[in-house]
């Protein structure tokens, strides 16, 4: 709650069973499939706040995009795709809990 623009929520990582230690290391691309009405974004492998909430206390209303008293959690879907040939991907659903 009241997080600034680009506040880092967390870092994504994954384990790929066909990414063998002695082979070419694969890279991974993370993409938001659903982003809780554009409240969040991914930069590289970092989940970040996409809409600043710093004016919530001053102006209220539409400025309160992430507000604990209104919504205590948000659900997003993230797709990760590896750099293998063929590229493999997986979608997972995550819950972001808002702290008051």
Main traits of this protein?
single chain; 100 residues; mainly beta; 3-stranded antiparallel beta sheet; 1 helix; 4% helix; elongated
Folded structure, characterized:
This protein is mainly beta. It has one helix and six strands; from the N terminus they run ββββαββ. The strands form two sheets. It has a three-stranded antiparallel sheet, with no helix packed on it. A three-stranded antiparallel sheet has the order 2-5-6, with no helix packed on it. It is elongated and about 55 Å long.
What's the quick description here?
With 100 residues, the chain is mostly beta strands. It has 1 helix and 6 strands. It is elongated, with a radius of gyration of 16 Å.
The largest β sheet comes out as: 3 strands, antiparallel
Tell how many strands the DSSP assignment holds: 6
Low-pLDDT ranges: none
Tally the helices: what do you get? 1
Q: What is the ordering of alpha helices and beta strands?
A: EEEEHEE
How much of the sequence is in beta strands? 35-45%
Sequence of strands across the biggest β-sheet: 1-4-3
Cα radius of gyration in angstroms: 16 Å
- Structural class estimated from helices and strands: mainly beta
- Distance from N terminus to C terminus (CA atoms, Å) equals 6 Å
Helical residue percent band: under 10%
Q: What do the pLDDT scores average to? A: 87
Cα shape: elongated
């Amino acid at each position: 709650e009241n997080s600034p623009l680009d506040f880092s929520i967390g870092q994504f990582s994954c384990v790929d069973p066909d990414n063998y230690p002695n082979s070419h290391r694969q890279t991974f691309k993370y993409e938001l499939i659903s982003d809780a009405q554009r409240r969040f974004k991914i930069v590289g492998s970092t989940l970040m706040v996409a809409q600043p909430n710093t004016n919530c206390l001053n102006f209220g209303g539409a400025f309160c995009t992430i507000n604990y008293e209104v919504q205590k959690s948000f659900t997003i879907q993230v797709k990760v795709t590896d750099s293998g040939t063929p590229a493999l991907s997986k979608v997972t659903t995550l819950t972001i809990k808002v702290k008051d």
